[in-house]
User: Fold this.
Amino acid sequence: MVISLGQKALEMALMLSAPVLIATFLVGLVISILQSATQIQEMTLSYIPKIIAAYLTVLILGAWMLGKLLDYTKELIINIPSWLR
Assistant:
């Protein structure tokens, strides 16, 4: 039971963090390609676009992420009595 709870918690964490991580990864990749093409080697240049991409991803997918988290929490709370047996 404990392993199952841990596995579901990790799956939920991965599912909720994946869109933000993928968006920031893709923006970072594009910025890196542009930096190498233009030979601008400024390390801080990619931070602002990554922050904006993460913000927009949460803004667009925030309702879905919150819905998933609420469903998971409801499932946990509903199953508490069955764990106490």
Notes: Helices lie at 2-38, 47-78, 80-83. The longest helix spans residues 2-38. DSSP finds three helices and no strands in the chain. The mean pLDDT is 92.
